Amino acid sequence: MRIRVINPNTTESMTALIAASARAVAGPGTVVEAVTSAMGPASIESHYDEALAVPGILAALHDADGYVLACFGDPGLDAAREVAAGPVVGLAEAAMHAATMVGRGFSVVTTLSRTKGRAHDLAGRYVAAGACRGVHACDIPVLDLESDPAARKEVVALARHALERDESDVIVLGCAGMADFASAMSAELGVPVIDGVAAATVLVQSLITLELRTSTRGEYAPPPAKRYSGLLQPFERT
User: Fold this and answer.
1) Which phi and psi (to 5°) does residue 153 adopt?
2) What are phi and psi of 209, to 5 degrees?
3) What residue spans of the chain are helical by DSSP H?
4) What's the CA gap between 185 and 115, in Å, rounded?
5) Which CATH number fits domain 92-196: 3.40.50.300, 3.30.450.20, 1.10.1520.10, 3.40.50.12500?
6) Cystine design at 135: which of 5, 108, 160, 172 (Cβ 3.0–4.6 Å)?
């Protein structure tokens, strides 16, 4: 079994962090290939960034049995499901579903305040009303999570506040760049702390094992053939 974990941004060091998280939970015989997008932003922190990350994601959907989109905004998830041969799972999707299985309510701890609305939108799509008790931002830029030695301490403090304020019992980490925080945070806070990279890897691995693929009936049918122009011409489907 081969799982391709796609980092939709172009920062190689984040791809290495994502790869370590995915490989730590992969089962025997599962090959995890983590790839960095060939085009797009250095980090994804806005709707504009998300939109411009999608072509790189679509270009990376090949040579695997299943795919993980390693960005908490789940950019391009629906488009990826239209064209990928195997199942595709997003980080927020996997993390939020996992959270509902180990607690009654969860809080999301994310990076910038401007991304909180996106997290709320995804929660509204993925889980029952009331399951997501709150979304909290530490206002640390994505790439600073790795370089700032105080980042983990600030994220832990914010998560502790979220648990008390929201009366939640699970923390969902709202950025792939927090993947290596989960285990230590869970031990420190005494609650499940969910890294979406690990959750999505296990989920897509399970779908492959169950021989489940994205349905091609209806909305996720392959997109109709048509001409594309300019920079998007390579994405033309015939």
Assistant:
1) -60, -40
2) -60, -40
3) 12-25, 47-59, 77-83, 91-102, 116-126, 144-147, 151-166, 182-189, 196-209
4) 22
5) 3.40.50.12500
6) 108
DSSP state of 1: -
Q: How far apart are CA 101 and CA 178, in angstroms?
A: 21
CB atoms < 10 A from the CB of 229, how many?
A: 7
Instruction: Tell if the pTM clears 0.90, that is, is over it.
Output: yes
- Per-residue pLDDT of 48-106, as tens digits, reads 999 999 999 999 999 999 999 999 999 999 999 999 999 999 999 999 999 999 999 99
CATH architecture of residue range(s) 2-91+199-235: 3-Layer(aba) Sandwich (3.40)
